[in-house]
Amino acid sequence: MSKILFATSEAYPLIKTGGLADVSGSLPAALKSLNHAVRLILPAYPQAKERAGPLKCITTIHLPGSQEAARVLEGRLPGSRVYVWLVDYPPAFDREGNPYLDANGRDWPDNAERFAFFCRVVTEIAMGRAGLGWHPEIVHCNDWQTGLAPALLSLEAERPATVFTIHNLAYQGVFPAEVFFRLGLPPQLWHFEGLEFHNHLSFIKGGLAYADKLSTVSPTYAREIQTAEFGYGLDGLLRHRATDLRGILNGIDLDEWNPATDPHIERHYDARRLSAKQDNKRALQAEFGLPESNDLMLGSVGRLVEQKGVDLLLDIIEPLAELPVQLALLGSGEARFETALQEAAARHPHKIGIKLGYSERLAHRVEAGADAFLMPSRFEPCGLNQLYSLRYGTPPIVHAVGGLADTVVDASAEAIKQKTATGFCFYYASGGALLRTIGRALEVYAQTPKWRSIARTAMAQVFDWKSSARQYIALYKETMTR
Hints:
Layout: E1 3-7, H1 19-33, E2 37-43, H2 46-51, E3 56-61, E4 70-76, E5 83-88, H3 90-93, H4 111-126, E6 138-142, H5 148-153, E7 161-166, E8 174-176, H6 177-182, E9 200-202, H7 203-210, E10 213-216, H8 219-224, H9 228-231, H10 235-240, E11 245-247, H11 277-287, E12 296-304, H12 310-315, H13 317-322, E13 325-333, H14 335-347, E14 352-356, H15 360-369, E15 372-375, H16 385-391, E16 396-399, H17 402-407, H18 413-418, E17 424-426, H19 431-445, H20 448-459, H21 465-480
Parallel strand pairs: 1-2, 1-6, 2-5, 6-7, 7-10, 10-11, 12-13, 12-15, 13-14, 15-16, 16-17
Antiparallel strand pairs: 3-4, 4-5, 8-9
């Protein structure tokens, strides 16, 4: 049994802005179920304090230069046996809403100070200086907000081993050089092999340069980030650390995402009762204001940003409307994409239904009611929606990058014949490639036995968190023998 301090800036259902929260809410519970002692530590945002159940203060930590002592509040991760430690420091974390952005969608101006403080508290706890009587063997940090912790721990004697996971390399926590000095960080960390990045402070480099082992959320993404195309200027460092880098696919909660028991959907079904999926399709059409039709129903759930390939979809929206398809899209993001999609829906009200925002219930209903699921992402570290789609017998149509390439088997003639196909892939990020792939899907959709065979093969795939957790445990063991 290992003792693991799992540090993150968000964890579902305490607080969520993206996939990091899904991982942080699921992996610790899976590790706990495999008999490892896990403590999940994150900032005490108001939402997290409300949702972590009864809280008790287990220690206070006073850092030099801080306005007041930080309290560490202990609760439980809802639906699990995992202890949650919330770092309660009101000057940094007592803010409603998004943990990183203000009400106008701009970065909080003191984000560097906020997450540097968090990393220092993590370091104190990791080194056994917080009076908790609990010493982790592994400190597992996630994304830039925790990147300074491995750097600070690297300066300590008799420290725990460190693992740093990259969930999305596009977000790096880069600040002007003067912030490094304002934060009072140890001067020996300021050099080009340390935290300095083109004369800026890079939080993520703290993890990439100083953690004992690195991981990211799919094997293909682990290779991609070592290239100039996907490396965001850090590909050289990642190539240098290639022997320490692992790609471990995320899992999904097989109980929460199960069409046979899902409380959110119109009618339950499984691989033997796929015809019941039609009732979910009819319900989805009604919910999105679309007429009943046997056309191929394309579903989409996600952030409306360029990374997700929304521009590729908009490039083909007019020819798409000419095909025997409907589109039900749930999401929010950049105003230009929201406006363009709403205008397209107004031009084609019988073809395109748009709902802006996010609803967990509606996300489940899209997965159950769609015939196929669109994920034309320009890059995708892992992706979760394609895993939900496979589980729901909704073949994904994906750009074969990152985790999409690792989890979706293209419906080539040979793969269909061998019954290994689970979706449809395209290999170049263009509207034309997306449109041609939708055309391929339409051809197969017209052949009901073939389509249902693909859907059943998709439903037979298993991407669960225990499988992922076992791979992380192997990585932890390797790290502890450094």
